[in-house]
Design a protein that fits this description.
7 helices, mainly alpha, single chain, flat
Length: 176
């Protein structure tokens, strides 16, 4: 039995604005975080550089950079929102795939969550800055004698595990 056309239209019209509103909230949150950080930096710079600034216009020129920071913060928030949304959709898809038509229990939901986190860590590790950061942390960990030799023998695996651990930790914080 098919769904009446009025219900189909109603469902589609509710879901699309909800996604747009959610992504807008992420962008607004990113811009708000950058605004707060920029205001703190502006106060700090005005205190630190009081002898350097000769006029109010020089301070105003410095504060004009806040608008660029806000735009970048909004874009970063939007990217995080898109990533979180797509990871959630992927997790639900993996969950339904693993459940095979049944209702997914907690173990299947956890398996789908770990699968998405592992896939995210695998893809994120391919980015050059993330790879360099993880290798830098591995280098720092190699200073501990107790784990030096296992890390030297399995540096690449340790780097992937480190990024995976960071993705898992961020995902757990996101769930809270």
């Amino acid at each position: 039995m098919s769904t009446p056309i009025t219900e189909q239209v109603h469902t589609e019209s509710i879901e699309k604005p909800a996604i747009v509103a959610s992504l807008a909230s992420y962008a607004l949150l990113g811009a708000g975080a950058v605004l707060l950080l920029s205001l703190i930096e502006l106060v700090d710079v005005n205190i630190q550089l009081t002898p350097v600034f000769e006029s109010f216009t020089e301070r105003l020129i410095l504060s004009s950079y806040l608008s660029m920071n806000l735009a970048v913060g909004a874009v970063i928030g939007l990217i995080i929102g898109i990533s979180a949304r797509s990871a959630s959709i992927l997790r639900r898809w993996f969950c339904s795939l693993l459940a095979r038509g049944r209702k997914a229990n907690l173990a299947l939901q956890a398996a789908a969550w770990l699968l998405v986190c592992g896939l995210s860590a695998l893809l994120l590790r391919q980015q050059a800055h993330v790879r360099g950061y993880s290798k830098g942390i591995v280098r720092e960990l190699e200073k501990l004698e107790i784990i030096r030799h296992p890390l030297l023998n399995h540096e690449r695996a340790a780097s992937y595990l480190l990024v995976g651990g960071l993705v898992l930790a961020c995902s757990l914080v996101w769930m809270i």
